[in-house]
Amino acid sequence: MKRTVKLGLMAYVDPDGFDQWAFAGDKIDVHAEHVERFDSLNVLPGDEPDEASHEVQDEAPAGNASLEAWQEYARSKDVDTEGLSRNEIRALFA
After folding, report:
1. What CA–CA distance (Å, rounded) separates 21 from 12?
2. By Cβ atoms counted within 10 A, which residue in 50, 52, 54, 58 is the most buried?
3. DSSP strand E in 1-92: where?
4. Domain count, the chain
């Protein structure tokens, strides 16, 4: 499952079962059997574990999708969309 590393350095198990290392901001694939543990450890101090905030969406929403759908997609790519319209967000990924 796709995840974004929040901490400075994280160890994880890749989909092939091999131990790997990743740095903050890296987008990685975590073995399905290890996702829950990864999510519980990949939390900044003061934050609550939130699986949805870690998922990375692979496919962009349809061109006519709602502003909220485009904002969610942009957040999964760590892109700030504050104050941007749907079309401006779409243009960032064109």
Report:
1. 6
2. 54
3. 2-4, 9-13, 19-23, 27-29
4. 2
**pTM exceeds cut of 0.85:** no
- Beta-carbon contacts of 57 under 8 Å, excluding residues fewer than 6 positions away, are 2, 72, 73, 76, 77
Amino acid at the residue 67:
L
Token digits of residue 89:
């967000």
- What is the β-pairing status of strands 19-23 and 9-13? antiparallel
- Range(s) of the domain holding residue 93: 57-94
d(CA 69, CA 8): 29
Rounded Cα gap, residues 29 and 12, in angstroms:
9
Read off the pLDDT of residues 33-42 as tens digits, 9 standing for 90 and up.
898 889 888 8
Residues 12 and 29 in one domain: yes
Give the integer Cα–Cα distance in Å for 34 and 59: 23
Asked if 28 and 70 sit in the same domain, the reply is: no
